[in-house]
Amino acid sequence: MEKNYDILIVGSGAAGLFCALNLPDTWNILMITKDAADQSDSFLAQGGICVLKDDDDYHNYFEDTLKAGHYQNNRAAVDLMIRKSPEIIADLIRFGVEFEMKDGAFQYTKEAAHSTARILFHKDITGQEITSRLLDQVRKKKNITLREHTTMIDLVCYQNTCTSIVVNKPDGTIEQIHGNSIVLATGGLGGLYANSTNFPHITGDAIALALKHKVRLQNLPYVQIHPTALYTKKNDRRFLISESVRGEGAHLYNARMERFVDELLPRDLLTKEILQQMHADKTPHVWLSMKHLGADTIAEHFPNIHRRCLREGYDVTKECIPVVPAQHYHMGGIQVNTNGETSAMRLYAIGEASCNGVHGANRLASNSLLDVLVFAKQAAHHITQHHTAYSHPRPQIELSQYAEIGPLKRAYKEAVLDAIQRR
Predict the structure, then answer these.
(1) Does the annotation count 246 as an active-site position?
(2) Cβ atoms of 118 and 108 closer than 8 Å
(3) Among 19, 77, 177, 236, which has the highest number of CB atoms less than 10 A from its own CB?
(4) CB 322 within 8 A of CB 281
(5) Which residues of 248-260 are buried (b: 16+ CB within 10 A; e: fewer)?
(6) Cα–Cα dist 11/351, whole Å
């Protein structure tokens, strides 16, 4: 039996959830996600979310974002993101998100390449706080159906218009699902890398299908490496040591326990310095010390990092920890405008899967959560204003061609990696 929805949203991270919550309650919305709904990279974000504190900070915030992005940013997108930030924070608070407060005022932290403290946070689990609250709100909506463990394996397009998706359901069967508009919010591509802070199932699915269907892409080689992930010999996802740790004053040391770099350099520049130091020392990591911040500050601001490091055998209140750069974020993706529109009709892309150029060649710390929320809301509003039912014949796909899912997934991954290296 054919299924038809007003909107199909692929992905359950902050972008997909926030988009769904900004669409009309009268619309029939289907969200799918390839793992459990809380297994998105949005849940892993630690440091915080940037906000324009007041008009006096606009110029500095704008300049910090451009400087970190090597002035390759889309300035209109940067302007929109910054100016919309207070509105987004108000939305989040309305949805129940709690940020650190003192005497009734927001507390702000500072991270690398920021000229001032402008980052709101919730301990060191800001992404979890925001995304879990949004997920709770989505689960309350009667018009939104959320299907977990359901993987998009193809788009169905007709005359440059996307009409359907093909999914692999939890029981292994294949289904074609129709939507009047389709929103790709599948996240980044860290699962393609052996050394990444991302979940391994986040593998650039939307980019793979954009390649297949000739949807325009942008800045694919712009892959961000985070300077400080916890070093381990385990073959596992790298645990991020938040930028805000260095923003609060943590130090980096070489093998001789000497400070060797300005810890607040932009991520790409700091990564380069760390890799050069590792090469000079002939070591697989450098050392990071936060013990001088004090046990009280660590317990209050970085409890999750403290607990995880203890599980790995390190007490950050008393000793240094080994850190190494790891793949973290993709600034490239499906080319979109500031409304999330792609080069294909009725197809939108938001979040890390998309690229409107807001980050340029390197993302400024804690602009990611703000980026995905601002432009998810922009896309939702554009869809709402331009929504019409699809009235043309919908191509019916021979589903038997997707019988072998394993080779198909491997082909998609290889295509994305090849495209990143070629461009």
Answers:
(1) no
(2) yes
(3) 19
(4) no
(5) bebbbbbeeeeeb
(6) 10
Taking alpha carbons only, the member of 134, 174, 83 closest to residue 351 is: 134
- Enumerate the β-bridge partners of residue 144: 29
Type of residue numbered 321: I
Cα–Cα distance measured from residue 296 to residue 319, given in angstroms and rounded to the nearest whole number: 15
Active-site annotation holder among 118, 267, 346, 363: 267
Four-residue CA torsion sign, 66, 70, 75, 78 = negative
Number of residues assigned to the chain: 423
Least Cα distance to 197 among 152, 233, 221, 227 occurs for 227
Tell me the Cα Rg of the chain: 21
Which amino acid is it at 374? V
- Residue 211 near residue 184 (C-beta atoms within 8 A): no
Q: How confident is the prediction along the chain (423 residues), in pLDDT tens digits per residue? A: 457 899 999 999 999 999 999 999 999 999 999 999 999 999 999 989 999 999 999 999 999 999 999 999 999 999 999 999 999 999 999 999 999 999 999 999 999 999 999 999 999 999 999 999 999 999 999 999 999 999 999 999 989 999 999 999 999 999 999 999 999 999 999 999 988 999 999 999 999 999 999 999 999 999 999 999 999 988 778 999 998 999 999 999 999 999 999 999 999 999 999 999 999 999 999 999 999 999 999 999 999 999 999 999 999 999 999 999 999 999 999 999 999 999 999 999 999 999 999 999 999 999 999 999 999 999 999 999 999 888 877 888 899 999 999 999 999 999 999 999 886
Q: At what angle do helices 75-94 and 368-386 cross, to 10 degrees?
A: 90
Is the Cβ–Cβ distance between 334 and 342 less than 8 Å?
yes
pTM above 0.90?
yes
For residue 194 the two structure tokens come to: 């052996």
Count other Cβ atoms within 10 Å, centred on residue 43. 20
For 276-369, where are the E strands, in sequence order?
Answer: 286-289, 321-330, 333-335, 347-349, 354-355
Q: How crowded is residue 196: how many other Cβ atoms within 10 Å of its Cβ?
A: 25
